[in-house]
Amino acid sequence: MRAAFVILAVILSFEEANGQFTTTHATNIHTAIFGTSYNKYVRPSATTYVDIELNLLSLNDLDMKNQVMSTSGWLTITWNDPRLAWTAASYGNIEYIYTKQDKIWRPELIIDNSVEDMAPIGDTEIFFKIKNTGAVRWDPPGQYVTHCNIDVSYYPFDYQKCSIEITTFAFTTDVVILNKTKDSVNVDDFKENGEWVLDSSSVEEQVLTENGEMFSLLEFKLIFKRRPGYYLTNVVYPVILVSLLTNLVFLLPVDSGEKISYILTVLLAQAVLLTLVGDSMPTTSKHTPVIGIYISFVLVMAALAIVITILNLRLHLRADQATVPRWLKSFTFIVLLKVNCLSAKVKDQNKNHVVSQNDTLELQDDDGRSKSSECVKTEAWKNQDDEFPFECKEVSYLLDIFFFYLFNIITFVVTVVLLVVLAVCDRPT
């Protein structure tokens, strides 16, 4: 029996000597390094180098209107404190111990561009991991709500460049320097967002100057690309469709009595779309969305269509159908007939001639001299008003067709320009 106890004691001694953890050794380490000689208010060395890495978990929100980005993650902060080193072999080969922030010196860090909580980073319940070489690791988690300069110029095909800026609160660059651990943000545990895609990230070491003092600063830059699917279905397509509806007012017959009510309805629909887009935009004049400019242009086109429709209705309902303004007679022969691919009825003395816009007819005047069709078309009504072959209703119809073509061409060109500009939107560097 005595021999068995001896063997057991030898085994326990052997295991303890080969690195078995014991609370006694761990307690002795804490007592040795956190004794009366350790002062947590004194930095470890003349210049302490602190390495920081941002581990991103999720993008909670990117509020365009308030220009705020909310993210979740944690920081991996490491530095070396020679006062916390011990010989592992003397303490059962224990290489790591853990303590809390009220026992140890730590760099005073803040989120410089935070819009909610400006308190220093840290929590009394978070453990610090200390290695026997004096290396300290601190992993404080948090939710970071920071300011983000939103650029909605190419909405909804836009990129947003936001950042999280971390700086020392009290220590200047003479005593504490912040270094980046990696050139990019750690996204190994990043969860995808339904509205935004993390396009890229980078880290920059900078210097912040305040009141003549310089402080070390790390800027973690994040570039997000918007997923445009939802906005194509609910914003872009309806806007383009409503813009095309404006032109149909010129095809609506006057006798229907619905021309004014139709174009007013389209105008109100465009105003509602502009309001919906504007409500989600930041209230700033620094960046104006291209699609907002497009909707404003379409609104102007609709308002212009209302004015043209009202004037055209007055022409159509004119009491004296034979009285057509002189400028409109000229416009009819020069433009409207060509646009509508119609022939001009020209009266030369007592004979009716049909003059096509594609043919050149040789007609003779009273002296027997020949005239081209261009001269006939102008002079036939220039000298005698009763020779103009169209009534006001006919001219009104020709004007409707002309403006229908004109508005369609303008809308098509502007829409193509909009889509091209959105497609080639700039990606932030």
Describe the protein's architecture and organization.
There is one protein chain. With 429 residues, the chain is of the alpha+beta class. The chain has helices at residues 2-17, 23-33, 229-245, 259-279, 290-316, 326-340, 373-382, 392-423; strands at residues 48-63, 68-80, 96-100, 109-111, 127-131, 135-138, 141-147, 159-168, 176-180, 196-210, 213-226, 344-348, 351-355, 363-364, 370-371. It has eight helices and 15 strands. Strands 1, 2, 3, 5, 6, 7 and 9 form a seven-stranded mixed sheet that branches. The protein has a four-stranded antiparallel sheet with strand order 4-8-11-10, with no helix packed on it. The chain has a two-stranded antiparallel sheet with strand order 12-13. Strand 14 (363-364) and strand 15 form a beta hairpin. The chain is rod-shaped. The two termini are 78 Å apart. Mean pLDDT is 81; it is low at 8-17 and 344-386.
Describe the structure in brief.
This protein is α+β, with helices and mostly antiparallel strands.
Count of DSSP strands: 15
β-strand amount: 25-35%
Principal-axes geometry comes out as rod-shaped
Q: What helical percentage do the residues reach?
A: 25-40%
Radius of gyration, rounded?
Answer: 40 Å
Give me the secondary-structure category. Answer: alpha+beta
- Average pLDDT score: 81
The secondary-structure element order is HHEEEEEEEEEEEHHHHEEEEHH
* pLDDT < 50 stretches: 8-17, 344-386
Largest sheet: 7 strands, mixed
**Quaternary state of the chains:** single chain
**Helical segment tally?**
8
| Alpha-carbon distance between the two ends | 78 Å
